[in-house]
Amino acid sequence: MLALEECFEANRKWAARMRRRDPEFFERLREQQRPALLWIGCSDSRLAPDHIIGKQPGEIFVHRNVGNVVVHTDLNCLSVLQYGVEVLGVRHVIVCGHYGCGGVQASLRAERLGAIDNWLRHLRDVQLMHRAELEGIDRLDQRADRLCELNVEAQVANVCRTSIVQEAWQRGASLAVHGWIYSLSDGLLRDLDVTVERTDQIPDRYRLR
Ligand code: CO
Fold first, then answer.
1. Same domain, yes or no, for 152 and 100?
2. Do 25 and 37 lie in a common domain?
3. Measured by CB atoms within 10 angstroms of the end CB, which terminus of the chain is less buried, N or C?
4. 3-state secondary structure string, the chain?
5. Domain range for residue 13?
6. Same domain, residue pair 123 and 22
7. Which residues make up the environment of ion ligand 1, defined by Cβ < 5 Å?
8. Does residue 1 carry a pLDDT above 60?
9. Ligand 1 center to residue 94 CA distance, Å?
């Protein structure tokens, strides 16, 4: 059984170490948070945002769900996005997926897992949009990895189509939305080069006037 006391023991050590390194660390953070990044990533325990990009508490505002999906009616995700962009003033939104994503693999297998099937439907929609390309990839692991990339691209587009991001751009705010992917096998991140930072980069039919 997992010894939960270990969590508290580790926490005391960590807090003491932080205080030794920077005596005002906690006082400063108590006053306010000023993260420059909003991270939208997969819930996978191996994709721990602070660790993999070397950030400390106070530096990233985070939203995570299975498959790093951004759904335009998901009040949870929209609330994080609005608070991050309008109140905290983040300059970058990062949608980060990862190769070997269990959610993406499950959506490809289309087997019944329970309530989560309704969530994975969003990944199946992405799959269907790119059916021709995906069916052209014979190896199943490669097909899944390509879907991981396509999913990040689709979710970057979904972030940009929200009223929140479009209004920020209309106000003249400097805000860029990026798509990154993480490899579980070597721990490295890759920029998918799908950055969007202006309204004219999104399809006309999604622009709010
Ligand atoms: Co995942």
1. yes
2. no
3. N
4. CCCCHHHHHHHHHHHHHHHHHCCCHHHHHHHCCCCCEEEEEECCCCCCHHHHCCCCCCCEEEEEECCCCCCCCCHHHHHHHHHHHHHCCCCEEEEEEECCCHHHHHHHHCCCCCCHHHHHHHHHHHHHHCHHHHHCCCCHHHHHHHHHHHHHHHHHHHHHCCHHHHHHHHCCCCCEEEEEEECCCCCCEEECCCCECCHHHCCHHHCCC
5. 1-31
6. no
7. 42, 44, 101, 103
8. no
9. 15
* 120 lies in the same domain as 177: yes
Ligand 1 centre distance from Cα of residue 18 (Å): 30
Q: Which residues are catalytic?
A: 42, 44, 46, 98, 101
Model confidence pLDDT, tens digit, residues 25-62: 999 999 888 999 999 999 999 999 999 999 999 999 99
25 shares a domain with 77: no
Which pTM does this prediction carry? Answer: 0.95
Q: What total of structural domains would you count in the chain?
A: 2
- Residue 82 and residue 20 share a domain: no
Same domain, 11 and 80: no
